[in-house]
Design brief:
two-stranded antiparallel ribbon, 8 strands, alpha/beta
Length: 155
């Protein structure tokens, strides 16, 4: 029992704390374009406590695992081969937003630099590994919908 003068800093998961939407690859799901995961310890802890809602908008949009790399070029999701997969990215982002709303998520932790999930910086569409300011399609949609977005690099 803590005294009134000393704040209780023990980790307590309250049922009134909103779950957090997370990129599924950060939760250990092998769904990245290259067929692997990018597990992050903080996201795994959220998952273990039942506070994470993992989503992969690219898979939700019907794309396979693995799949060719995609970058955003003039607002379009374009694969290295030139194939335009914008519709799949948009459909997956809409499904992920619906899941966020269904679960009452008010925040998201998304994979940095991803053309779907990347908040703040993404690759420039030339497949030269050049970063530019911008958001992946899901990150932009969540921000427009009032959901706070950050990447695993901000944790």
């Amino acid at each position: 029992m803590s005294s009134p003068d000393v704040p209780d800093t023990s980790p307590v998961i309250s049922s009134n704390i909103s779950p957090i939407l997370v990129s599924a690859c950060l939760a250990g799901v092998a769904c990245r374009y290259d067929g692997v995961a990018s597990p992050h310890p903080e996201v795994l802890r959220l998952l273990a406590t039942g506070r994470a809602v993992p989503v992969c908008p690219e898979v939700l949009g019907g794309l396979p695992v693995p799949r060719e790399p995609v970058e955003l070029r003039q607002g379009r999701a374009v694969g290295r081969s030139g194939r335009d997969v914008t519709e799949a990215f948009q459909a997956g982002a809409q499904r992920a937003l619906a899941l966020a709303r269904e679960h009452g998520c008010t925040a998201a932790i998304l994979k940095a630099r991803s053309p779907s999930c990347g908040p703040g910086q993404i690759y420039d569409g030339t497949f030269s590994r050049t970063l530019v300011p911008g958001h992946g399609l899901l990150a932009a949609l969540l921000k427009q919908s009032g959901i706070a977005v950050r990447s695993e690099e901000d944790l």
